[in-house]
Here is the input.
Amino acid sequence: TIAPCSTGAIYISSDYGTTWNVPSSTIMHNLFGVAVGSNGNAFAVGQVGTVYSSTLSTAYDTWTTSVVTASSPPQLNSVASFDGTVVFAAGGLGKMYKSTDSAQSWVALT
Here is the structure.
């Protein structure tokens, strides 16, 4: 189980929420949405167009950062990925973005 927090943390539970751990990676922004693809890739979204990504192989302890756009990045409120490779992120003002490389690069859809 992975839960984002508006205080800029990600909480990880391997026992269905009985106990929670915070990964060692530093999260710098408030987070509002999380998704895990069928391949185990995980994504969390939040302020200033930031997308954090991690993998099951690191036990979600290491998170990397990408930004959907460098120009006026929106707050991102939700993220979705079925396969862990194609990722959609949605934010304020009707903005929507798509990645086809596990959140490494982004294309604006709206």
Q: What stands out?
A: The CA atoms of residues 18 and 32 lie 22 Å apart. The radius of gyration is 13 Å. The chain has a mean pLDDT of 89. DSSP finds no helices and ten strands in the chain.
